[in-house]
């Protein structure tokens, strides 16, 4: 069996795709269960964070494994396989181990060096153990990944290179200024009470905000988080809990709000944010107009289609006016109107390879049905940043750390509001400087990958060596029994001497070959030595398999949860 990982992250896919592919907790469980039920895989674990979705599995066939894992990711994420495939990456065997160790050290994080990924790795392993989908390989891999990540943080200054996503987001809200100076005296609203929201609340408390209001669908969890904040010795913040229906009113009082929930729809709409700003300033809020994008010649005439419900002049170059990107953010009624308009075939096909009007209408009809259930479809790309145009200083600062997003992307267009979300964080982190300690962490990862591979290869041959020694012991026992029958006059002392002598001969004959074969098996390309031993000594494959199962069962039982 071999390790395979198939996934997508902020490095391979735009945030709009990551947002749509985000997995709920239930979807993650079902994905793991379906993976181990599939033919190529025997073990599986899912690592899902706000900027990555990765499926790890122990597979017996590479190509079949890639196809199966990719299909399962598409099915459970709800993004079509054809659309998802260009953004997927695949790592196999040592490269897969290298990838996980790099992730554990924070080298692959949006904010290099951030340490929260270790808690997320631990949660992924715990989930796999609870679902009984983690055998020897997944347990060894993730537990060693946790150790490598801790080693990187303790032996290097990688912490200086990175920080939590919360801290990085607050720095972006402060627009390059000192975060504590920016935060001092502000009132904060934290929406959600999970691990990321708790981290956000604790970070805000340390920056010097005077008040933190925690809102959560489960009020008891909000109360617990508020109590923890109030009891903190290193801060003087006042914290209180409110139900989710109090968010609109609290948003009017807040200076800064951080949202990170598991909601599948929007938590804060653009209208709700506009109402909060209006309540704070007493002035009506309207979206800032963005100048029309200059069209290339191939898009000439896009603004002339009669009765089209879209503002075609605002569509970006290269988007189909009948495609998903064009209709993202439209309300259900508008989608239905647009679908009818497409169905009439009033748009000429200007570029080869686009969908037919019938297929486009079917697609948009499905989008309309989805919008009817949730009220609207959130925008799948952040609107163009609005600079200048007399934009006032922010009266409300918003940080959206959820995937899919909690806060309507249309908020970017509202005056008096500064919104930082996962997409804008990804853009900002691309220019973040790398610390010199990163090179040292990379060397640690390379060394640990080599050690892990050697240990796994050595462990691979252990059942064969155990089976060989078991066979030798059976042969010795059989010969001693036959000797007892042929020499019944031997006393017990004589029998003991003969028994020990035979055992010593067998042990000496087997010692050097078994020690050497373990050393050879630990080297790259050493997997064939187990097969050679089985062939040379005519070992029963089922005996070897039974030993392997017994070792796996003992290892799994003895592992900490």
Blueprint of the fold:
Blueprint lengths: L1 E8 L5 H7 L3 H13 L3 E9 L2 E8 L2 H16 L3 H4 L4 E4 L1 H11 L11 H15 L5 H20 L2 H4 L3 H9 L5 H5 L3 E5 L3 H13 L3 E6 L2 H13 L6 E6 L3 H7 L2 E4 L10 H12 L42 H4 L4 H12 L13 H18 L21 E5 L16 E4 L1 H8 L7 H50 L5 H31 L5 H9 L4 H18 L3
Helix pairs in contact: 2-3, 5-7, 5-19, 6-7, 7-19, 13-14, 16-17, 19-20, 19-21, 19-22
Describe the structure concisely for a colleague:
With 561 residues, the chain is of the alpha/beta class. It has helices at 15-21, 25-37, 62-77, 81-84, 94-104, 116-130, 136-155, 158-161, 165-173, 179-183, 195-207, 219-231, 247-253, 270-281, 324-327, 332-343, 357-374, 422-429, 437-486, 492-522, 528-536, 541-558, and strands spanning 2-9, 41-49, 52-59, 89-92, 187-191, 211-216, 238-243, 256-259, 396-400, 417-420. Mean pLDDT is 78; it is low at 290-307, 309-327, 345-354, 376-389 and 556-561.
Quote the average pLDDT.
78
Radius of gyration: 30 Å
First-to-last CA distance:
24 Å
Sum up the overall morphology in one term. elongated
* Beta-strand content estimate: 5-15%
Count the E strands: 10
How many helical elements?
A: 22
**Which sequence of strands runs across the widest sheet?**
7-6-5-8-9-10
Oligomerization status of the protein chains: single chain
Bin the helical content: 40-55%
Residue windows where pLDDT falls under 50 for at least 5 positions? 290-307, 309-327, 345-354, 376-389, 556-561
Derived structural class: alpha/beta
């Amino acid at each position: 069996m071999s390790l395979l990982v198939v996934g997508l992250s902020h490095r391979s896919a735009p945030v709009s795709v990551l947002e749509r592919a985000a997995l709920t907790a239930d979807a993650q469980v079902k994905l793991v269960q379906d993976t181990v039920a599939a033919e190529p895989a025997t073990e599986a674990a899912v690592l899902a964070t706000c900027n990555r979705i990765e499926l790890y599995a122990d597979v017996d066939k590479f190509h079949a494994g890639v196809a199966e894992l990719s299909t399962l990711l598409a099915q459970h994420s709800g993004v079509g396989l054809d659309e998802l495939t260009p953004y997927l990456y695949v790592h196999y065997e040592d490269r897969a181990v290298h990838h996980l160790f790099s992730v554990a050290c924070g080298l692959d994080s949006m904010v290099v060096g951030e340490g929260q990924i270790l808690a997320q790795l631990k949660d992924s392993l715990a989930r796999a153990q609870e679902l009984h989908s983690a055998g020897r390989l997944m347990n060894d891999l993730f537990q060693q990944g946790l150790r490598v990540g801790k080693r990187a943080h303790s032996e290097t200054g990688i912490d200086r290179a990175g920080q939590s996503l919360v801290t990085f987001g607050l720095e972006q809200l402060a627009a390059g200024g000192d975060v504590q100076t920016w935060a001092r005296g502000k009132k904060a609203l934290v929406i959600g009470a999970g691990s990321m929201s708790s981290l956000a609340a604790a970070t805000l408390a340390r920056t010097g905000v005077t008040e933190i209001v925690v809102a959560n669908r489960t009020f008891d969890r909000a109360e617990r988080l508020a109590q923890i904040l109030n009891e903190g010795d290193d801060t003087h913040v006042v914290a209180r809990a409110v139900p989710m229906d109090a968010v609109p009113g609290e948003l009017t009082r807040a200076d800064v709000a951080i949202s990170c929930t598991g909601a599948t729809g929007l938590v804060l709409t653009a209208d709700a944010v506009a109402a909060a700003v209006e309540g704070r300033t007493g002035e009506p809020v309207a979206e800032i107009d963005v100048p029309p994008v200059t069209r290339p010649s191939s898009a000439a005439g896009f603004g002339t289609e009669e009765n089209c419900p879209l503002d075609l002049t605002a569509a970006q170059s290269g988007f189909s006016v009948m495609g998903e990107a064009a209709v993202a953010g439209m309300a259900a009624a508008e989608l239905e109107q647009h679908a009818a308009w497409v169905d009439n075939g009033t748009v000429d096909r200007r570029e080869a390879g686009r969908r037919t009007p019938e297929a486009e209408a079917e697609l948009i009809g499905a989008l309309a049905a989805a919008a009817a259930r949730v009220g609207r479809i959130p925008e799948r790309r952040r609107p163009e940043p609005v600079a200048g145009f007399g934009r006032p200083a922010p009266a409300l600062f918003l940080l959206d750390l959820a995937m899919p997003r909690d806060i309507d992307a249309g908020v970017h267009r509202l005056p008096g509001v500064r919104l930082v979300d996962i997409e804008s964080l990804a853009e900002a982190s691309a220019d973040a400087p790398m610390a010199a300690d990163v090179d040292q962490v990379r060397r640690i990862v390379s060394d640990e990958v080599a050690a892990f591979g050697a240990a796994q290869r050595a462990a691979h041959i252990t059942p064969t060596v155990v089976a060989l020694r078991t066979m030798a012991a059976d042969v010795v026992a059989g010969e001693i029994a036959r000797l007892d029958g042929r020499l019944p006059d031997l006393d017990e002392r004589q029998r003991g001497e003969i028994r020990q002598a035979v055992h010593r001969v067998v042990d000496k004959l087997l010692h050097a070959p078994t020690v050497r074969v373990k050393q050879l098996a630990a080297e790259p390309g050493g997997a064939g030595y187990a097969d050679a031993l089985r062939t040379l000594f005519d070992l029963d494959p089922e005996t070897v398999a039974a030993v392997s199962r017994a070792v796996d069962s003992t290892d799994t039982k003895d592992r900490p949860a």
